[in-house]
C-alpha cells in the first residue's frame, strides 16, 4: 500500500503527539458544495450516487480539493445494511430515508436473511478501494456504519421518527425480539466494517444517531452493549497500523464515562457537551472528537475563528483531540465559511502541541 503522507488524524485518535490538531467534518462531502450538487444531478439520485464507485469517489474527494482536511470519509449512507437486508430503502424529497418494509414482529425478523458484506454490499467496497487508490496516501480514509440501535430504529419505524413509539414499544414490551434484531444487526455491522477495512478503510466511525433518545438504562441495554459487540469483532490492525474506532452518540454526553469504556479509541461529542469538561471526565482513556455547533458556520468568519479558538483552549494542551463539528454540516452553509473554520484550526492549534 502507498505510504501515508499525513497520519495526523490517526495519531491523534491514538493520543500520540501531533504538530497541530487534525480536522475533518461530518458530511464534509455534501449539499453545501455546488460541485457535489452537480455530481448528484449527474448520478440521477442519492442512492445511484452511493452505488456508483467512481462518482462516490469523486464526491469524497471534492472537499479535499477545497480544504486541507486531515481525513476523507467514505461517501455512502448509514442505511446500506438494512437496505441489503431487503427492506427497500428509498428517499422522499423533504422526508428523508424511508423503507418499504418494516420489522415489527417475529415473522418480519425471520424474513430477514443474514448478509455477507463483500457480496451484498460489494458496491460499497468498490467505492472504498477506489477512494483509497485515488487518495494515494494523501490522508487516511474513514469507513463507517450506523450503530445497531440506530439501524433498528429506522427499520422498525420505517424511517425517521419524532417519538420512537414503535421501536420503544418493541424494546420495552418485546425485549427478546428487540435483542434478536440488535444481535443480527451488530454482527452484520461488524462484518460490514471489517469488509471496509479489508477494502482500504484506515479508521472507522459508528454513528449512533438515535442512542440519545434512550433512557440511561435503555442506552446501556439496547445501544452501547451492541456497539461493544461490533467493536470486539473488528480487526485491530491493517497494513501494519492500528485501525482506530470512533463512537459518536448524538445526545450521549451524559454517559461519556461509560462510552469511554466501550472499547473505542475515540468518542465523538455533539455541541451540547463542553470539551474541556469531557476531557476531565474521561482522562487518558480515549481521544475526543468534536464539537463545534454546525450552525456556527452561518456566523461571520471572525466569529467562527473565535469559536474555534475557544474550543481549542477548552480542550487545552496535548494530543487526543480531533476537531470536528458536533454533527453534520448544514446544507446551506457558505463554503467560504468552511475555509475560515479549517484555516482557524490550522493556525490556532499548533500552540497546544509540542513537536517531537
Calculate the mean pLDDT score and round it. 96
Strands across the major sheet, in which order?
Answer: 1-4-5-8-9-10-11
What's the CATH architecture name? Alpha-Beta Barrel
- Total domain count: 1
Helix content: 40-55%
Question: What is Rg?
Answer: 19 Å
Strand count, sense and barrel status of the largest sheet are:
7 strands, parallel
Give the strand content.
Answer: 5-15%
Overall strand count: 11
Shape: globular
Strand-and-helix sequence, N→C?
Answer: HHHHEHEEHHHEHHHEHEEEHEHEHEH
Low-confidence stretches: none
CATH topology: TIM Barrel
Instruction: Compute the number of helices.
Output: 16
- Report how far apart the termini are: 26 Å
- The CATH class designation is Alpha Beta
SSE class: alpha/beta
Amino acid at each position: 500500500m502507498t505510504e501515508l503522507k499525513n497520519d495526523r488524524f490517526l495519531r491523534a485518535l491514538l493520543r500520540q503527539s501531533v504538530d497541530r490538531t487534525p480536522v475533518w467534518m461530518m458530511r464534509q462531502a455534501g449539499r453545501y458544495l455546488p460541485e457535489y450538487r452537480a455530481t448528484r444531478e449527474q448520478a440521477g439520485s442519492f442512492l445511484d450516487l452511493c452505488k456508483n464507485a467512481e462518482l462516490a469517489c469523486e464526491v469524497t474527494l471534492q472537499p479535499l480539493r477545497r480544504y486541507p482536511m486531515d481525513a476523507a470519509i467514505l461517501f455512502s449512507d448509514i442505511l446500506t445494511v438494512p437496505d441489503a437486508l431487503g427492506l427497500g430503502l428509498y428517499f422522499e424529497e423533504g422526508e428523508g430515508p424511508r423503507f418499504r418494509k418494516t420489522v415489527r414482529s417475529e415473522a418480519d425478523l425471520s424474513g430477514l436473511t443474514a448478509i455477507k458484506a463483500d457480496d451484498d454490499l460489494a458496491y460499497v467496497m468498490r467505492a472504498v478501494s477506489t477512494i483509497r487508490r485515488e487518495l494515494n496516501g494523501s490522508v487516511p480514509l474513514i469507513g463507517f456504519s450506523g450503530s445497531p440501535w440506530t439501524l433498528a430504529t429506522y427499520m422498525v419505524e420505517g424511517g425517521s421518527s419524532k417519538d420512537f413509539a414503535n421501536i420503544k414499544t418493541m424494546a420495552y414490551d418485546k425485549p427478546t425480539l428487540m435483542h434478536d434484531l440488535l444481535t443480527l444487526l451488530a454482527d452484520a455491522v461488524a462484518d460490514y466494517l471489517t469488509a471496509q477495512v479489508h477494502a482500504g478503510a484506515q479508521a472507522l466511525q459508528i454513528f449512533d444517531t438515535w442512542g440519545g433518545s434512550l433512557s440511561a438504562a435503555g442506552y446501556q441495554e439496547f445501544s452501547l452493549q451492541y456497539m461493544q459487540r461490533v467493536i470486539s469483532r473488528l480487526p485491530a490492525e491493517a497494513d501494519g497500523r492500528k485501525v482506530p474506532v470512533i463512537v459518536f452518540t448524538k445526545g450521549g454526553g451524559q454517559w461519556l464515562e461509560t462510552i469511554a469504556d466501550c472499547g473505542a479509541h475515540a468518542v465523538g461529542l455533539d455541541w451540547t457537551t463542553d470539551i474541556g469538561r469531557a476531557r476531565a471526565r474521561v482522562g487518558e482513556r480515549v481521544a475526543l472528537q468534536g464539537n463545534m455547533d454546525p450552525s456556527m458556520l452561518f456566523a461571520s468568519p471572525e466569529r467562527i475563528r473565535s469559536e474555534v479558538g475557544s474550543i481549542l483552549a477548552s480542550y487545552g494542551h496535548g494530543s487526543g483531540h480531533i476537531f470536528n463539528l458536533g454533527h453534520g454540516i448544514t446544507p446551506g452553509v457558505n463554503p467560504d465559511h468552511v475555509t475560515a473554520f479549517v484555516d482557524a484550526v490550522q493556525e490556532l492549534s499548533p500552540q497546544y502541541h509540542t513537536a517531537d
